[in-house]
Design goal:
The protein starts with a strand and ends with a helix. Helices cover 5% and strands 37% of the residues. The chain is mostly beta strands. α2 packs across α3. It is built from 4 helices and 37 strands. The longest helix is centred in the first third of the chain and has 8 residues.
């Protein structure tokens, strides 16, 4: 760290010593679960994905065969062995789910079943990445690794080849030279499962794990299709073989998938952040997961080596179509810079071209762009979180909204041409508690249409390092952006309407720019993005214990988007303390009814959902219910008395 800077004043012939700006503090990202049953040493929950069955098209109930599928990661915290299971939900709410498969057990093998695939037959790949970003994918085998990669795995014991075999699943040296494992699959703490079902291809589910790999599993059978080891993690892989292993992060960030146009072809692309494991993100072609190496394979990796402002990405990367010039639209990965970047406290929003050829290095303002956000206080840590994206009528990115650790909510304007020099201005809003202290925004906001613009909804609070478990008052906000240029800045919570959970049904104040609700306990915080359904926002908060072994609980909320008041149709969920930690709410369709058309042809459609959550003890627990109503059919009409005249004029 610099202590002082020497400025030479040639004219005066003197030397002046001035204090240099201190680097912002870094954060030690906690790689352990938020909550676990440490007494049994075998119960910790991680990633979960619910895929509910849709409402039946012609009846008043959900599909009768099944209520959907749940994919859930659990772990054995005694040795950090991982399991990733699929459960089939029965149609009746509260019925016991049926276990379909456990990918960890399949990969490891059981008493009556050999490991599938065997270590030698696993399709595991990595990349050799040059300093400028040029990439060549290679099998993750000792012979295919570069000399530099081999050196990172060899260590003093010169057991690099055996170490690679161990990482591939070979177990002969477990307990002899290397660490024992109860499961070949590593644990998944902060990563997110991603389900991709391309027409004519095998449906797959993807999961990053702390065994150093991004895994692709057959969604029907649970058998691993392929795995990818990022080059950015090669230097840390040797820790996984150490008998004195202490848990650490590897591919421990969220992921997403989407479609992108690459070299004139539509490709299914998976983006994965590495969380606390390494800086940056990587992109894979998952168009055909059963033939991963026959496609584009690893498209690229982007880390702090490519740009020092890239940090540990712990929020979701996304795909967007972006207009770089008036007549040129390209597909990009949109990635927030995250924690511990080299930007003197600045945040950065990166746009990484998905059509960058493998043999082309990274070049700023050619195949990637970077928009920085200023720092409010250089003495405290800062990080930009994932944005919510707003597209125009052509499906091209127009605005992005993202928050940071210092409570700023930023609007990025992508009108005009790259590199969008005027994309960022003053923050739209700064989240502060009742005492004026800044509140961290670590989640991707939600976006809802309002009659006078858009409402941006987000909660505050962080749970990144162990110190973040201490009390700090937090809130949930919904602010209005009228899409003016320059933006209409909200100067404080005095311009918002406060909401309460005690039934006080106050009107929105005249000229109110939105609403907010303060959480009732200082330990409560909102760290996960919720969900929107027909005018209702649902989200869960966490009330963490002093550490992962301490009791941890949640609260669940269902609020009206436009007013912030509790949704009248919700049942026993808004503000209720739940007995366990539920990261995210999920909706299981129950019933759907439609009214008869009114004289104008409008129909009221009412949907009822069960609100559920996942816990370490089981895949689903019913929290409550929510009912939504919307108008469908003909929404309005206008009589045109001179229609014939207009028809003739149009000929």
């Amino acid at each position: 760290m610099k202590i002082r800077t020497l400025l030479h004043a040639a004219v005066l012939g003197i030397a002046i010593f001035m204090p240099a700006r201190a680097d912002p503090p870094t954060l030690v990202i906690d790689s352990w679960p938020i909550a676990a049953d440490c007494k049994s040493a075998s119960s910790g929950s991680g990633a979960v994905l619910l895929r509910p069955a849709p409402f039946a098209a012609s009846s008043g109930s959900a599909s009768s065969a099944s209520a959907g599928d749940v994919y859930q990661a659990t772990m054995n915290i005694a040795d950090w062995g991982g399991h990733f299971s699929r459960y089939v939900l029965s149609a009746g709410v509260g019925a016991t789910p049926t276990s379909a498969w456990d990918a960890g057990a399949i990969l490891t093998g059981t008493a009556g079943r050999v490991a599938e695939p065997t270590p030698a037959l696993r399709q595991i790949y990595t990349s050799v990445v040059k300093p400028d970003g040029v990439l060549a994918m290679a099998p993750f085998t000792w012979a295919a690794l570069s000399p530099a990669q081999q050196a990172l795995l060899n260590l003093e014991d010169h057991a690099g080849e055996q170490r690679v075999a161990y990482l591939r699943g070979e177990r002969t040296l477990e307990g002899v030279q290397f660490r024992r494992r109860s499961s070949i699959l590593g644990d998944a703490v902060h990563s997110t499962p991603v389900y991709v079902d391309a027409p004519g291809r095998r449906a797959a589910i993807y999961l990053g794990a702390n065994d150093g790999m991004l895994h692709a599993f057959d969604a029907a059978s649970g058998i691993e299709l392929f795995a990818y080891v990022p080059d950015a993690l090669i230097a840390q892989l040797h820790y996984l073989t150490d008998p004195a292993y202490v848990h650490r992060a590897y591919v421990d960030g969220p992921a997403s998938a989407g479609e992108a146009n690459i070299a004139g072809s539509k490709k299914a692309v998976l983006l994965s952040a590495m969380g606390g494991g390494a800086t940056g993100v990587f992109a894979l072609d998952v168009t055909d997961p059963a033939r991963f190496a026959d496609g584009l394979g690893a498209i690229w990796e982007f880390t702090s080596r490519d740009d020092p402002l890239m940090g540990n990405v712990t929020t979701i990367p996304q795909i967007a179509r972006v207009r770089v010039r008036r007549d040129v639209v390209r597909d990009f990965a949109i990635v927030a810079s995250g924690f511990n970047n080299g930007g003197d406290g600045k945040g950065a929003l990166f746009l990484l071209a998905l059509d960058k050829p493998h043999d082309q290095g990274w070049r700023l303002n050619r195949n990637y762009y970077r928009i920085t956000t200023p720092v409010s206080d250089s003495t405290v840590a800062n990080a930009l979180s994932a944005p919510v994206l707003l597209n125009d009528n052509d499906g091209v990115l127009r605005y992005a909204y993202a928050g940071d650790l210092q409570g700023n909510l930023w609007r990025f304007d992508f009108s005009g041409s790259a590199p969008w020099p005027k994309a960022i201005g003053k923050s739209l809003f700064v989240a502060r508690d009742a005492s004026g202290r800044r509140q961290s925004i670590t989640q991707r906001p939600l976006l809802a249409y309002a009659s006078n613009g858009y409402m941006i909804l987000f909660g505050t609070g962080r749970l990144i390092a162990l110190a973040d478990r201490k009390p700090s008052p937090q809130s949930y906000y919904a602010i209005i952006d009228s899409l003016q240029a320059p933006p209409d800045i909200i100067t404080g919570r005095h311009q918002l309407t406060q909401r309460f959970l005690d039934g006080r049904d106050m009107r929105m104040a005249p000229g109110s720019k939105g609403w907010y609700i303060d959480f009732t306990e200082a330990i409560e915080r909102s760290i996960n993005t919720g969900m929107l359904t027909d005018g209702v926002v649902l989200f869960n908060t966490v009330l963490p214990g002093a550490d992962m072994c301490s009791p941890t609980s949640s609260r669940s909320y269902a609020l009206k988007v436009t007013s912030g008041l509790p949704a009248e149709s919700s049942s026993a969920i808004t503000g209720e303390t739940l007995p366990d930690y539920f990261p995210l709410p999920a909706l299981l369709p129950q019933t759907i009814t439609r009214s008869e058309p009114d004289p104008m042809g409008r129909i009221a459609q009412e949907k009822t959902y069960a609100v559920v959550g996942a816990t370490p003890a089981g895949p689903m627990v019913v929290i409550g219910t929510v009912r939504t109503t919307r108008r469908v059919g003909r929404l309005s009409w206008r009589e045109i008395v001179n229609w014939r005249e207009l028809h003739e004029a149009a000929k």
